[in-house]
Amino acid sequence: MVGQFHVVVVGGGFAGLTTALALAHKRSSVSVVLVEPQEHFLFTPLLYELLSGELQTWQVAPKLDHLLAGRGVAWLQDRVTSINRQTRCLTTSSGRNLSFDRLVLACGGVLQSFGVPGVTDHAIGFRTMADLRCLRHLVHRLQTRPQPLQRLAVVGAGASGVELACKLADLLAGKAFIELIEQGDKILAGSREFNRQQALAALQQRDVSLRCRSRVQGVAADHLTLLVQGQTETLPCAGVIWTAGLAVAPPPLLPSAPTDSQGRLICQADLRLAGEEAVFAAGDVAAVPDNRNQQPLPATAQVAIQQAPVLAHNVLASLDGEPLQDFRWNDLGEMLSLGRGQATITAKGLTMAGPTAAKLREAVYLVRMPGAGHRLAAAVGWLGEHLRP
Ligand SMILES: Cc1cc2nc3c(=O)[nH]c(=O)nc-3n(C[C@H](O)[C@H](O)[C@H](O)COP(=O)(O)OP(=O)(O)OC[C@H]3O[C@@H](n4cnc5c(N)ncnc54)[C@H](O)[C@@H]3O)c2cc1C
After folding, report:
1. pLDDT of res. 377
2. Domain extents for the chain?
3. Is the CB of residue 158 below 6 angstroms from any atom belonging to ligand 1?
4. If you measure from the C-alpha of residue 202 to the centroid of ligand 1, how many angstroms do you get, rounded to a whole number?
5. In terms of pTM, does the model score above 0.85?
6. 20 to 30 A Cα–Cα from 82, which one of 8, 73, 103, 189?
């Protein structure tokens, strides 16, 4: 390779941050710029523990300047607003233009409202620190100024909805009822059976009211409108938390790139956009075929983290004119948080539930945190908490 090449990574989440660190580690002669508007990385699987106070902000949402110090990655705190694939130049919201030899798109997902009226105005998402602050405020209000028959509705009984419903039920025990609303006929449709059964038991123990086959038609400040077996119902509630679905909103590309039915950028197995030489994508924004069945891989942190080393290798190989590798996902299993100090795990033939599973889940996640220094500090902090007499 001759001269200095410029690689720009868009998005400092699981896929982008891990790829940027791997690129800088592998090749110091390549300049790596990470463009990310938030000042922290967010370890979303532990957002529930941050809500409940079981973990601290520095452990779950460490500052990017801390994670990147001395790691050879330049961080631009900005948002990419458009990308010209022909001129290999991108624009940011503060008006900067950045040229690149290779681009990695890792801008993740956003709340999916499915066009349901009132969701963006009245519901709280559960994806960002801003969402967390809103939810904390609501929980605090319900804890400190209780009204009779308070009810919170969590919409979507996928992993996020189930985990959040359990945590909220523990935080608001005796103060509010939790309703978990799902349009399908069961919770955790894509999960392992052991975890599903553990989750059902955890919801029952906490008196979370589960409403399946119920489709939300509208959200207002103090109620939800539901369609249940062809009948419209009104459900008064003090707050609605929306965890149903995932949308993606990558910056506009010129010329546009092919997307799947969910708007995800269609990628080849080597993580390049279909028919592209210089632009790669990974994480939630990318539709990458599963090597086992050619179906798109799930939008999970596990997939995003595993993509990073292959992506870093392929970016450098493409600059060197060498062959690229295909990404192969190794499904490591599933861990769910089920309320304060409780979890369930199904992984590689192992099933486990209860407090030990919760401790194992937290430990596994804290050592997966991008950035070796932070990983160590977070894990030591966690050990300190758990070894306390
Ligand atoms: C509450 C919750 C719990 C979860 N639990 C699990 C779990 O237990 N296990 C699991 O495997 N997965 C879990 N997930 C899914 C996981 O968080 C995502 O799959 C993962 O974050 C995807 O990584 P990513 O890098 O694609 O996107 P993200 O981690 O979302 O990062 C994207 C980044 O891009 C930035 N960005 C967006 N647009 C732009 C732009 N235009 N310019 C620059 N930057 C931009 C964003 O600010 C963000 O920091 C959970 C998700 C949530 C919300």
Report:
1. 56
2. 6-37+78-109+248-320, 115-244, 334-387
3. no
4. 26
5. yes
6. 73
